[in-house]
Write a structure and sequence with these properties.
It is a single chain. This protein has four helices and five strands, in the order H-E-E-E-E-E-H-H-H. It has 158 residues and is α+β, with helices and mostly antiparallel strands. It folds into two domains: 41 residues, no CATH class; 85 residues, 2-Layer Sandwich (Enolase-like, domain 1), CATH 3.30.390. The strands form two sheets. A three-stranded antiparallel beta sheet has the order 3-4-5, covered by helices on one side. Strands 1-2 form a two-stranded antiparallel sheet. Strand 1 and strand 2 form a beta hairpin. Helix 2 packs antiparallel against helix 3. It starts with a helix and ends with a helix. One of its GO terms (biological process) is translation. Pfam families: Ribosomal_L28e. Belongs to the eukaryotic ribosomal protein eL28 family. One of its GO terms (cellular component) is ribonucleoprotein complex. InterPro entries: Ribosomal_eL28, Ribosomal_eL28/Mak16.
């Protein structure tokens, strides 16, 4: 099976979107293009939440996996390097992702996209603060103030 028929499997074409997207696992921006394709490139970067795979414990963090240079043909399980980043905050994780992807010279063209992807994943893992209640509106105008304060005065007297 050719890589072209594999890539066609993941295409997302819809009218009005303006571009063709991809459901390819590991695609950083979910855009159908040679640059982001994991199937075609020898060096590919995949960033996903830690705990997505069966071999990882669930929880907060980011899993960065890169493809090894020249893996053995008969050892498919050892074709990827996996880094699980759980310690520290978002800045430390972003620095580690930048180091793995760009600074070591692996795929410098994907540096910004990979850091952005990791920060979005960490943001989604943050506990929500909940919906804040709206502050009561301030009463404006002298007539409105007398109505409100007059009603409050009668309530306190009763």
């Amino acid at each position: 099976m050719t890589s072209r028929s594999f890539a066609r499997r993941y295409l997302v074409k819809q009218k009005g979107l303006g571009r063709i997207f991809s459901r390819e696992p590991g695609n950083l921006k979910a855009i159908h293009s040679y640059k982001y394709s994991v199937l075609v490139n020898q060096k590919s970067v995949s960033i996903e939440p830690a705990g997505v795979s069966a071999d990882q414990p669930a929880g907060r963090g980011v899993a960065v996996s890169t493809r090894k240079g020249k893996p053995a043909v008969n050892k498919i399980a050892n074709t990827r390097n996996q880094y699980i980043l759980k310690k520290g905050g978002s800045r430390r994780t972003a620095g580690a992702v930048a180091s793995i992807v760009g600074k070591r010279g692996y795929r410098a063209d994907l540096l910004k996209d990979s850091v952005a992807r990791s920060s979005v994943i960490l943001k989604s893992q943050r506990p929500s603060t909940g919906r804040q209640t709206a502050k009561p509106r301030k009463v404006r105008g002298s007539k409105a103030k007398t109505l409100v304060h007059g009603a409050e005065a009668t309530e306190t007297e009763a």
